[in-house]
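Pilot study result, target chain (496 residues):
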Amino acid sequence: MKTILSAVFALGVLLLPAALRGAEPPAPLRVEGNKVLANGKPIRLRGINWGWWQLQGTRYTENDMKRCAEWGANVIRLAFYWDKFVQPGTVTLDEQKVKAIDEVISWAEKYGIYVILDMHTVPGGKAKNHCGIYKNKKDLDNFTGLWQQFARRYKNEPVVAAYELMNEPDTAPNNHALYQKTVKAVIDGIRKVDADKMLVVSGDDSSIHQSSLDEYAKQDDPNVLYTFHYYQGSWPKDWLGNSGERDGITGTLPWTWYERTFKMERPGKSPAKARLMLRSDANKGTAWFDDLTVTDAKTGKVLGKWSFSKDTEKFTKERGELPFEFYDKNVGHNAPGSLAVRGTTEYHGWLGPEIPVQDGAELTVSGWIKLEKATGYTYLGICWMGLELMTKDTIRQSLKKTAEFARKYNVPVFVGEFAVERQVGPEGYQAKTTADRIAVFEELGYHWTYWNFRETTDSNSMALHPHRRDGSDYPINEPLLKSLKDGWALNREAAK
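Predicted structure:
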């Protein structure tokens, strides 16, 4: 591929307008101390995610790459699902399918933008509920081997800035030693093929909390960009966290009683409401839920009680853009009718109506679950919500741990994902808090990519330019774009 692309690259870049090509063509990147260097000069990566690419109908074109360049972005974090690019039933790259990645890279090369290859899912799974790479040598070998194939393919492509080993890993409950052993095995495998490409590595704990960048996350390899995702105060009625994701059932079971008690334990985050979660994670079979109750564990007061003999009774699909959640009018615990999840590749389920709660609340969730050849884990849990509008000061305070990690080890840090949904806070808050977050990242010297450019969703999402279900586009989110463009403009200032 390199031979094909590089023949036109130098001329192509020179013929582009200055706004598109920057000061010089993309050069291989490497880490030196706490800096990322291109041709020996420090560079800050500021860009955007191409999220859910090749999934759910989300699409990108060369014109999208051109627009990213015009706006000033200098990197695309390309999220891809590994199984979309291999031969059926194998972990061998399919030459026809992988051309879709080649195409994106060729666009990026044409417009002078780096690409971070983000393996968003991995063979065997990378989390407790689907954790093959941590427990199964074959899965780990497949994961490592797949990265070796990508490394052989792209090691001589300077526009491929880095390989991001895996998105949001989570050994929960956190087994840092196991995580470190797994990451080292993958890094060692890649380095046998490509000794020079920059790697992007997170800590454990889903990389979604800045606490994931802790001592155990540090690698011996010097050419590593350390990453976490920043979603604090990012959802309406602000999502404060979930409880219940550390447990679950699997297999084939008749109607089975399920009960757990959860305490709100988020210091400084006072919940105002909670919602019952019905989840089935990585389930290739079917799970049914029926006759559910939420009780105040301290007083015994019933806060909500639901059966599903008629309809979903105000329960909403947690990931309703996909047809994995459905109401089954024929199957139920005491009477026909239940909420069901079938054939998922990741988590899916339902969310119950809002329940008012007090700070320090303890809730008991209970109900009946039926399984048929269910893989992964199926469980009941609680989604906690409250109010958390962020200022520059609170953003700065919340990032102290990552800043300490960067200083202690003298390493660069990359905010691989951050975003706030459009309906969070008053009008204009999304654009303002995005600008504030970028400003604090800049203060700390962090690299960053916004989540995301496109997604097949609704107009209130985090996406800058979302698709409708019919394939058409919503109008671009102009206030958000302005905040991002102001951040990306720093790339041009740095290139002067």
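One observation from the pilot: Residues 2-235+389-495 form a domain with the TIM Barrel fold (CATH 3.20.20.80). A full batch analysis is planned for the follow-on phase.
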